[in-house]
Amino acid sequence: MENEEIYSDWHRKIQDRYDQRALADRTAELIVHPTFTEQEIAFITARDFFFLSTVDATGHPTVSYKGGAPGFVQIENNELVFPCYDGNGMFLSAGNITADPKVGLLFMDFERPHRLRVQGTARLDESSSCEAYSGAIFLIRVAPLQIFVNCPRYVHKYKRVETSRYVPKEDGTAALAEWKRLPAVQDVLSPEDREAAKKLGLMSYEEYEAKVVAGDG
Predict the structure, then answer these.
(1) pLDDT-based confidence at residue 98 (cuts at 50, 70, 90)
(2) Helices (H), 113-204
(3) Which of 15, 27, 147, 207 is within CB 3.0–4.6 Å of 203 for a Cys-Cys bond?
């Protein structure tokens, strides 16, 4: 991959200011590539979360956390695939991708530590192929442009505790989000969610906020 595809004149000005151009070029030559290696595929498909950056309606970058069971992200013919699960109905990442397909993904292992970055172009897949991903509303497919491992020296070590109880089960079912028990959203929920909230019992915003603070949101 040519360095001109990675660095702009603005990058070059800063690199030259600190006499880092040669190092920047060598780093790009050594680590940046467009095709997933077997080691990278193994790392990605073992993750249970990643961070997704998209471009919003005003042209600004935005980032979100995506989580699931280990293996919820797959690589198919050098295309990265992950499911869009039930959310708050805003579809911010999906809408951003539809308008501007440029994305960035960051995969982390805080226990090793280790991190992998992927820059690419994304598209929504609303075909029947999403049936292979339990609980998926639709899929997002990313064609990689730049893949590279980042030096882990500043990554702090953290220990994984447990899987979120909201991750969809193999049959596609999942626990009801606590915020769906708020009275303010009952009239805009699906009939199924409204019935589930009724069975669990509604709660005030203060009660929900207390759950979030306690880590039970």
Answers:
(1) very high
(2) 191-200
(3) 207
Long-range own/partner contacts, residues 148-151 (CB < 8 A, 24 or more apart): 148/31, 148/32, 148/33, 148/116, 148/117, 149/31, 149/40, 149/114, 149/115, 149/116, 149/117, 150/115, 150/116, 150/117
Query: Residue 50 has what pLDDT?
Result: 98
CA atoms within 13 A on the CB side of 213: 6
Please determine, for residue 1, whether its predicted confidence score (pLDDT) is greater than 90.
Answer: no
Report the distance separating Cα 100 and Cα 98, nearest Å: 6
Does position 29 have pLDDT exceeding 80, yes or no?
A: yes
In the chain, the domains with their CATH numbers are 1-32 (no CATH), 37-174 (2.30.110.10), 178-213 (no CATH)
User: In angstroms, what is the C-alpha Rg of the chain?
Assistant: 20
pLDDT at 100 over 80: yes
Q: Evaluate if residue 107 carries a pLDDT over 80.
A: yes
Q: Which amino acid is at 5?
A: E
Which is it for strands 79-84 and 102-109: parallel, antiparallel or unpaired? Answer: unpaired
Question: Which contiguous run of DSSP H or E holds residue 103?
Answer: strand 102-109
